[in-house]
Design goal:
Elements lengths: L12 H4 L7 E5 L5 H10 L6 E5 L5 E2 L5 E2 L6 E8 L11 H13 L6 E4 L3 E4 L2 E13 L2 E11 L15 H5 L5 H15 L6 H10 L7 E5 L5 E9 L5 E5 L2 E5 L6 E4 L5
Helix pairs in contact: 3-5
Length: about 260
């Protein structure tokens, strides 16, 4: 890989304008949070398919209000508005579907890419993407805002920790972020019908989930830490962990983090 800084070309609104309906992509030069922008539009009655992508997200959030901020024009930071016509019990699959769609959009370039339950995309245990799905109540019913942060052209100095990576670092080349966005959006659109077939989604997700089969520490909000082996996902996408006292079912909304026991903070 070259030691020269990666070029930082802008996203191409013209190419993004040609995506098939219902996708409608808006490019912002900078914004505190694409999720917040899309959530506000959803409350105003925006139909499904809106995509807001920014060249520079200045105050993005991950799960548990973790900060997600990157230098301008090196990452893909975007949010998609969905209005899933599924049973309320199946909304728990949305973060997993989003992770699986990002995984599918990267797998041809990165065969070793994997999913860490519930919403991280990894390359050999280094985080390359994170997902935050938020439910928004609107006059037209509940909507889902799917936020994705994908490390694309970052160098080492651009990343927040040694446990992160980027496409450029993994493959030694600079990527066209417009092409990547088109590919990931196409993957999400093609896979969204799996929300109506969660048994198929569960099988597909488990096949590429590196959490399963590993010993993990589950850190719960009250401070309790439970150690066990991640065995499976249940019918709602919750993680089933085998512990010394039996099986523990862990819901994504109730977990601070699940990590291999040998993984450093």
């Amino acid at each position: 890989m070259s030691d020269l800084p990666a070029p930082r070309p802008a996203l191409d609104p013209v190419r993004l304008a040609g995506l098939p309906a219902p996708l409608r992509v808006e490019v912002l030069p900078a914004t505190p949070s694409t999720n917040a922008v899309v959530a506000a539009r959803a409350r105003e009655g925006e139909p499904a398919g809106l995509v807001v992508v920014t060249e520079h997200q200045t105050a993005g959030r991950g799960r548990l209000d973790r900060v997600w901020e990157t230098p301008p024009r090196v990452a893909l930071t975007f949010s998609v508005l969905l209005r899933p016509q599924v049973e309320p019990a199946d909304w728990t699959w949305l973060p997993l579907l989003a992770g699986y769609a990002v995984h599918a959009g990267l797998a041809d370039r990165l065969p070793e890419v994997a999913l860490k339950w519930p919403n991280d995309v990894l390359v050999e245990d280094r985080k390359i993407a994170g997902i935050l799905v938020e439910r928004v109540e609107t006059p037209d019913g509940p909507a889902a805002v799917v936020g994705v942060g994908l490390n694309v052209n970052q160098d080492l100095a651009d990343l927040p920790s040694a446990n992160a990576t980027s496409l450029r670092l993994e493959l030694g080349e600079t990527f066209d972020r417009t092409d990547l966005l088109v590919q990931v959006l196409g993957s999400l659109r093609a896979l969204e019908p799996l929300l109506l077939h969660t048994d198929q989604l569960r099988t597909a997700y488990c096949d590429v989930c590196s959490t399963l089969g590993r010993e993990v520490d589950v850190h719960l909000p009250g401070g309790e830490v439970t150690r066990g082996e991640a065995l499976d996902l249940d019918a709602h996408g919750a993680l089933v962990v085998s512990t010394g006292t039996g099986a523990l079912t862990v819901n994504a909304g109730d977990v601070i983090h699940v990590r291999p026991t040998t993984e450093m903070e």
